[in-house]
């Protein structure tokens, strides 16, 4: 699993020459150029680039949505052990969960593209955008309808789409670092809201579905024990594997939440210091959060590797 995206390369600043400048104005022009070059040399994009590097790996969201969508199918397959009636609306449930999964992945992409857009701006690079406002709107609306207990409101959905629109505008208009402070300032509220919604979906929408796998396994133990020794061995092995997978998926979900929490705090620091965002002092504030985010996924990999060896 790759934790950090590729590093962004900055471009140097060249001062255009002006042969028409009169000799009595030349010293001021040269002094102005020297001042600009000095300020450029002082600019330190590492704080914003470190923030961009904290963006969650794309595979994480895919792991979570795959587990969420396939859980009802797994539950249905376990009914061969008992006389439980089949789920009559399984296909409808899968369609609903598929829409929710697309929405979750759209939100994840919106978070990542916004973070990487800031990194590109800081390095005078090109901003890229693939997420559309309608994707985010329809995706979050699917969660709003299927899981009203999450409390996602229409006004929240409208607000967070500003993050996607901002990245799209940056990509279309080709802005560079001159817009960085302004973008961070206007994006603080919708970006924080976007993170909060994503955390809520994972904590109270996806994780409970994963936890049900373990509950079903416990419920079916007696049915497994009633089987012949050979069948009991095979079913027990499969269920143990499924139980380990569910625990790893829950660990992934918790790591994702922890990472998003660090991202939320890091953006707030950028917002509070947005007028001095290209400075070493800002990098010193962001660096510990970036390290925390990196360590979160390092620990997750170690935990999953350990579970596969047991």
Q: What is the secondary structure topology, with strand pairs?
A:
Blueprint: H1 26-42, H2 46-53, H3 58-77, H4 90-122, H5 133-146, H6 154-173, H7 180-225, H8 229-272, H9 280-309
Helix pairs in contact: 2-4, 2-9, 3-4, 3-7, 3-8, 4-5, 4-6, 4-7, 5-6, 6-7, 7-8, 8-9
Summed up, the helix count is 9
Question: What is the number of independent domains?
Answer: 1
Low-confidence stretches: 1-41
Strand count: 0
Overall geometry comes to: elongated
Helix content range: over 70%
End-to-end Cα distance: 21 Å
Secondary-structure content class: mainly alpha
Radius of gyration: 25 Å
Average per-residue pLDDT, rounded, comes to: 82
* Portion in beta strands: under 5%
**What is the makeup of the main sheet?**
none
The string of secondary-structure elements, in order, is HHHHHHHHH
General description of the model:
There is one protein chain. By secondary structure, the chain is an all-alpha fold. It has one domain (45-309). The protein is 75% helix and 0% strand. Helix 3 (58-77) packs antiparallel against helix 4 and helix 4 packs across helix 5 (133-146). The radius of gyration is 25 Å and the shape is elongated. The two termini are 21 Å apart.
């Amino acid at each position: 699993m790759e934790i950090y995206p590729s590093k962004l390369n900055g471009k140097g600043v060249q001062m255009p020459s002006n042969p028409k400048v009169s000799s009595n104005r030349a010293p001021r022009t040269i002094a102005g150029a020297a001042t600009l070059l000095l300020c450029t040399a002082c600019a330190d994009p590492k704080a914003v680039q470190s923030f961009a590097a904290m963006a969650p790996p794309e595979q994480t969201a895919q792991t979570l949505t795959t587990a969420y969508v396939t859980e009802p199918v797994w539950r249905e397959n376990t009914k061969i052990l008992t006389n439980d009636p089949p789920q009559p609306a399984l296909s409808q449930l899968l369609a609903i969960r598929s829409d929710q999964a697309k929405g979750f992945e759209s939100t994840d992409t919106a978070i990542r593209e916004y973070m990487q857009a800031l990194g590109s701006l800081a390095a005078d690079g090109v901003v890229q955008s693939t997420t559309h406002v309608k994707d985010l709107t329809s995706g979050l609306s699917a969660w709003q309808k299927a899981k009203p207990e999450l409390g996602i409101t229409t006004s929240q959905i409208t607000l967070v789409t500003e993050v996607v629109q901002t990245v799209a505008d940056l990509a279309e208009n080709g802005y560079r670092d001159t817009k960085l402070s302004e973008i961070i300032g206007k994006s603080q509220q919708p970006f924080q809201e976007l993170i909060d919604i994503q955390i809520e979906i994972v904590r109270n929408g996806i994780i409970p579905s994963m936890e049900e796998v373990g509950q079903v396994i416990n419920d079916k133990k007696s049915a497994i024990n009633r089987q012949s020794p050979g069948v009991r061995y095979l079913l027990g092995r499969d269920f143990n594997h499924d139980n380990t997978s569910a625990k790893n998926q829950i660990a992934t979900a918790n790591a994702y939440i922890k990472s998003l929490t660090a991202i939320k705090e890091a953006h707030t620091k950028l917002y509070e210091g947005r007028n001095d965002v290209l400075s070493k002092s800002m990098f010193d504030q962001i660096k510990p959060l970036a390290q925390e985010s990196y360590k979160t996924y390092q620990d997750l990999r170690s935990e999953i590797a350990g579970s596969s060896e047991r």
